[in-house]
Backbone:
């Protein structure tokens, strides 16, 4: 059951900003990769860079808050012995081969995904800079295998981000709907049900 302190307001705001950033970056990145005639490519490229900077800034703020904020939660993301023990059972659960083991706020696969995403974002930042300023970073581009390889890596990670986000949304909606309500509306399921019940009572009294 979700509790208000599971996702305090600063964490929720960071989550909303990240969602917008990933949507805009994914859409603009796709059209930069596969433009068509008449597309305002300069506008799309500028939007891509603006939201890249917003992603970096939001990531920095979230990182600071995780370690030094009022509701610091950095320890929720680090793997521990219990996570190692539960890794295989959690994988079996997602493959419909077993029951979900008792885990902490985030299970080991969630932690691995959340730890991987900042690393992937840094790779996107570096490869994006190489693609935009190839003459400024020729040595770095060569280290990745050339511009074609850099472009492929950048595009592949975009799809990895999209896959993680879609899986995350699917699992939240089918397994943790109360967490969804809390994250986006700041209310737990009990509060929503209570508000609905009160509304029905008021409507019934008016009809009488």
Residues:
């Amino acid at each position: 059951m979700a509790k208000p302190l599971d996702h305090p307001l600063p964490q929720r705001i960071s989550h909303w900003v990240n969602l917008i950033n990933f949507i805009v970056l994914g859409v603009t990145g796709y059209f930069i990769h596969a433009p068509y005639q008449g597309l305002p490519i300069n506008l799309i490229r500028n939007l891509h860079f603006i939201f890249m900077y917003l992603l970096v800034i939001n990531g920095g703020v979230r990182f600071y808050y995780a370690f030094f904020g009022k509701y610091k939660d950095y320890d929720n993301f680090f793997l521990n012995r219990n996570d190692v023990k539960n890794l295989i059972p959690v994988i079996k659960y997602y493959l419909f081969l077993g029951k979900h083991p008792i885990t902490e706020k985030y299970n080991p696969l969630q932690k691995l995904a959340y730890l991987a995403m900042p690393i992937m974002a840094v790779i996107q930042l570096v490869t994006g800079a190489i693609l935009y300023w190839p003459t400024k970073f020729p040595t770095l581009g060569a280290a990745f295998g050339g511009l074609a390889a850099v472009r492929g890596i950048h595009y592949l990670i975009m799809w990895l981000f999209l896959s993680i986000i879609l899986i995350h949304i699917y699992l939240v909606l089918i397994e943790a709907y109360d967490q969804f309500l809390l994250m986006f509306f700041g209310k737990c399921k009990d509060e929503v049900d209570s508000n609905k019940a009160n509304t029905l009572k008021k409507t019934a009294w008016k009809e009488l």
Remarks:
- Residues 192-208 have pLDDT under 50 and may be disordered.
- The helical segments are 9-33, 41-68, 81-94, 108-132, 138-143, 147-175, 177-185, 189-207.
- Residues 4-207 form a domain with the Fumarate Reductase Cytochrome B subunit fold (CATH 1.20.950.20).
